[in-house]
Structures are given as C-alpha cells and as structure tokens.
Amino acid sequence: xxxxxxxxxxxxxxxxxxPVLRRLxxxxxxxxxxxxxAWALFVLAVAESSFFPIPPDVLLIALALSIPxxxxxxxxxxxxxxxxxxxxxxxxxxxxxxLVGFAILHFYGLTDKFAYIGRLYNHYNAxxxxxxxxTPIPYKxxxxxxxxxxxxxxxxxxxxxxxxxxxxxLVGGMIYLFGDSIRHFIDRYFNxxxxxxxxxxxxxxxxxxxxx
Length: 212
Hints:
Layout: H1 18-30, H2 37-48, H3 57-66, H4 71-95, H5 97-107, H6 114-124, H7 126-134, H8 139-148, H9 153-178, H10 183-211
C-alpha cells in the first residue's frame, strides 16, 4: 500500500463524528490504489473547498508517494480542483446562502465564525482568501463567506489560485525531491510547515501592498 492509513492523523472538523470521519478518510485513501486516483483527487479537491470534511492533501500525498515522478502533476490536479471547488463555494455563498450556506456552516459548528470572517474580508479582501487557501483553516468557510460578502470575484479566483497552488505544490515538490523518506516529516510537521509558509506569504502580501 503506498500510504499507510495509521501514519497520518485526521484533523477533525467540528460537527463531524470521529467514526464517520474515519470511514470517509479510509474511503478517500482507497482511491490511491485504483486507476482513478487522479480523477478522485480532482473531485475530492472540488468537494473539500465547498462542503466535504476530508482535506485533499491526504490523497495527494498517497498518490505522489506511489509515483513520485508524477508529484507535480498530482499537485496541479489538486490545485485546479480546489480552485474550482472554491468557485462552487463562492456561488453557494452568493446565491444560496440561506438555503445551503448556513446549513454547511452549522454542520461544522462554524456559524459563529461567519461574522468574524466578514470583518476579515472587509479589512483584507484578497489577503484573507490567500491566507485561508494556504493554511489548515477550513477553506470552505472562506469560499462561502466570500460569496456571501460579495468579494470581488476576479480577486477571489486569483488569490485562490496562488494560495492553493502554493500549498499543494509545496507538498508535491517535497515528495518529488525526497520521496518516501519525507513522508513521516510531512505527517508530523505539516501544520507547522503551513504556518511558516503562511507567515512568509503574509510578508509577501505586505511587501506588495506597501512597496509597489
């Protein structure tokens, strides 16, 4: 098996029971052993950006470890699916907030964060999208809120593309360079790595904002 299930912990999102999450997690990972792994990764990335609880990183890592030479291809598939899913989330927030959007937020126990995210958007606009797209923060909350608060769509798409590509190509690049030897390091320090690179990303944003 290219990726042992016991090696990686699952970030449990509020509102999802652990047994249910574990079954979903195992179901996601099994696609790495099928001929449809890349398609499954794309669909998972679309779904996770708008409503699904399992992050696509777990399948991305499994597929990249199975064929390290295709790591960047899988990262690209994951980024494309995630941006498309972000657009779906944006549409949900923009057109279906009352019907669908609040139900998704309530399911994950994140309804109370909605107003806070709105304040972030009012102050930082695309910067909030970029930070959310790169970090372990549930991206679906930001994509739905972006539509609900009428964030500029073009800015939203560009910020999503940059941040999600940076996140997934970081993972793919590490596996391409180091192969299976990097797996345990990613498992243990993935959240820390995303925090460090988020700090760098924010620094880049401020440099662009204040010096260009």
